[in-house]
Specification:
Distance between the termini: 34 Å
Order of helices and strands: HHHHHHHHHHHHHEEHHHHHH
Mean pLDDT: 85
Helix content: over 70%
Strand content: under 5%
Structural class: mainly alpha
Low-confidence stretches: 260-270
Number of strands: 2
Largest sheet: 2 strands, antiparallel
Oligomer: single chain
Radius of gyration: 23 Å
């Protein structure tokens, strides 16, 4: 019996590791990993948890709420598009169900740890692939190393070989940096090097929101340390990057990070406000339940054309704001449900005093302000994993507290 449990734990660990590894690499592979985890979780539930009344199914109301938002799309939206959106949102339900089932104490493993190792290797594989293409191009074209900081090797141009959106990779890196610093999964002597490598990658992605959050997080962490050398290395590293941005002969970095306008410095692109305004006009057409998926895009594109935003019109951009995206597509009802889910998750973390995941959830909310995160499969899968980890942490912490309080009484 003991050997069987050990084997099951190994299989669970491998599946979770594969989810982390494949998440940033290939959508189809990460989907297969989720399905494998679901299968093993159902096996665990059938053999170990089927008669366990302590299983907290009530927490599945959180992912069900996210699925319900997509169901609102059938009210006014195009049926075919609404169905595609619903299918794409299935990880909202599958991942939390799997994680809750796998959290059975008889075969419980540290899911976060396995996922961390897999994701860390996956992100470094992406970095190696992208860096290889960059340096290969520089060598072929006999360019200087200064070209590393020009537009042709940064942002979307940097991630083209793997086809991942820079902002979404930035979200994953914020999670990695946070867990690297605030866990014991990596030896202390190697943590700073891993974080620095991840910062280099963030810089090449030109992911402003992720960089800002990571700098704030690491600054707080470093300031609490008594190691002066560590403080010198990190802040020297940040100073060097700022110096490169300001002094580099190419205007790309300055305009991308600061977007200079009329001599002032702002942190958002001028056209973003036009695009948000277009989505708000669409929202006003059906404010309660929204205009629905499919139709929202068509109407938004028409508004881009009226506003002479040729870039957004030709590329058929979304709102680049998840809150406005839900508001225009699913109306006040959809946005309210999403906000309630976020408040519930924040409250759960506040109750168990988990500062790390409180920050990670705030970081996700921050990302939702600048990107329509849940309009891409990678964003859906990441948020599914994030809320799943929050749920099982809350279950474990509250169970431990109840046991402790029971023993005292």
């Amino acid at each position: 019996m003991l050997n069987k449990k050990i084997k099951i734990k190994r299989v669970i660990g491998i599946c979770i590791f594969l989810l982390g590894l494949t998440l940033p690499l290939k959508d189809q592979f990460s989907t297969i990993s989720i399905l494998l985890i679901l299968v093993i979780s159902l096996f665990v539930y059938y053999n170990y948890s089927k008669n366990n009344k302590k299983t907290k199914f009530v927490f599945l109301l959180i992912p069900f709420a996210l699925i319900f938002i997509r169901l609102l799309g059938y009210v006014n939206g195009e049926i075919e598009i609404a169905t595609k959106e619903l299918v794409r949102a299935i990880p909202f339900l599958l991942v939390p169900i799997s994680f809750i089932f796998l959290n059975e104490k008889n075969v419980r493993i540290n899911i976060e740890k396995r996922f961390y190792y897999g994701l860390l290797i996956g992100v470094f594989m992406i970095m190696i692939i992208c860096e290889y293409h960059v340096f290969n191009e520089i060598i072929i074209n006999s360019q200087s190393l200064g070209y590393l900081f020009r537009w042709r090797y940064l942002n979307f141009n940097f991630t083209n070989p793997v086809g991942i959106h820079p902002a979404y990779l930035g979200i994953l890196i914020v999670w990695l940096i946070t867990i690297t610093l605030y866990s014991n999964y990596i030896s202390k002597r190697f943590r700073i090097f891993i974080v620095l490598f991840l910062f280099v990658l963030l810089f090449q992605l030109v992911s402003r929101s992720a960089l800002l959050l990571s700098v704030a997080l690491v600054s707080v962490f470093i300031l609490k340390q008594h190691n002066r050398l560590l403080k010198f290395i990190f802040f020297g590293f940040i100073t060097a990057f700022v110096f490169v941005i300001i002094t580099h002969p190419s205007d790309y970095l300055r305009s991308k990070f600061f977007n200079e306008q009329d001599g002032g410095i702002v942190f958002s692109e001028k056209n973003r406000f036009t695009r948000l305004e277009a989505s708000l006009k669409v929202f006003k057409m059906a404010p309660i339940l929204g205009i629905g998926p499919g139709i929202d895009d068509k109407l938004r594109i028409q508004e881009y054309k009226k506003a002479d935003d040729d870039v957004a019109y030709k590329n058929k951009y979304n709102s680049h704001n998840q809150f406005i995206e839900y508001l225009s597509t699913f109306g006040l009802v959809g946005l309210t449900i999403f906000l309630i889910v976020l408040v519930i998750l924040l409250n759960m973390l506040f109750k168990i005093k988990d500062k790390v995941y409180f920050f990670l959830l705030i970081a996700f909310i921050f990302a939702c302000i600048t990107e329509s995160v849940l309009e891409r499969t990678l964003g859906i899968k990441y948020f599914s994993i994030l809320i799943s980890l929050i749920i099982i942490k809350y279950i474990n912490e509250t169970n431990s507290s109840n046991i402790l309080n029971g023993s005292r009484s």
